[in-house]
Amino acid sequence: MASITLWEIAGLLAKGRLQAPGTIEAAVRMFIDGTGAAVREISPEIAALAVQFPEDYSRDPADRLIGATARAYGLPLVTRDETMRSSPLIRTIW
């Protein structure tokens, strides 16, 4: 999982769009531990890939970093975002 996804999860918890017991930090840690996901930090390769998506890809910087992380590691991306799903540059699940 892209490291910026942790920030997105924390934001959803703070807004009440996701529910979990305890503090936001504890909930984010519980999510990582519970899923066994490996957190992938932003690397020079990921940063470069994030700015190379075409104009019709999501303009959201977080979405671009998440998509670039999936591309860099050859992983499918779990998303319901149609602009990301329609990109031929990444594989998506949902």
Tell me the structural class.
mainly alpha
Give the domain tally: 2
Low-confidence sequence ranges: none
Q: Write the element-wise H/E pattern from the N-terminal end onward.
A: HHHHEHE
Structure write-up:
The chain has 94 residues and is mainly alpha-helical. It has 2 domains: 3-35, no CATH class; 44-93, no CATH class. The chain contains 5 helices and 2 strands, in the order ααααβαβ. Strands 1-2 form a two-stranded parallel ribbon. Helix 1 crosses helix 2 and helix 3 crosses helix 4 (61-73). The model has no long low-confidence stretch (mean pLDDT 95).
What keyword list fits this structure?
4% strand, 94 residues, mainly alpha, globular, 2 domains, 5 helices, single chain
Question: What is the topological layout?
Answer:
Elements (H helix, E strand, L loop, with lengths): L2 H12 L9 H12 L8 H7 L10 H13 L3 E2 L3 H4 L6 E2 L1
Parallel strand pairs: 1-2
Task: Summarize it.
This protein is mainly alpha-helical and 94 residues long. It is built from five helices and two strands.
